[in-house]
Amino acid sequence: MAPTHVLRCCQRGLAWIPVIFIALVVCWSYYAYVVELCLFTIPDVGEKIVYLLFFHVSFIMFVWSYWKTIFTSPANPSKEFCLPKAEKERYEKEERPESQQEILWRAATSLPLYTRTGAGAIRYCDRCQVIKPDRCHHCSACDMCVLKMDHHCPWVNNCVGFSNYKFFILFLAYSLVYCLFIAATVLQYFIKFWTNELPDNHAKFHVLFLFFVAAMFCISILSLFSYHLWLVGKNRSTIEAFRAPVFRTGSDKNGFSLGFRKNIAQVFGDQKKYWLIPVFTSQGDGLTFPTRLVNADAEQATVTLHPEPNKSAAEVPVSPLSESQNRLLSNNQHANNIDDHLANNTLKSAESETITISMESES
Question: What is the mean predicted confidence (pLDDT) over 157-164?
Answer without folding.
Answer: 97
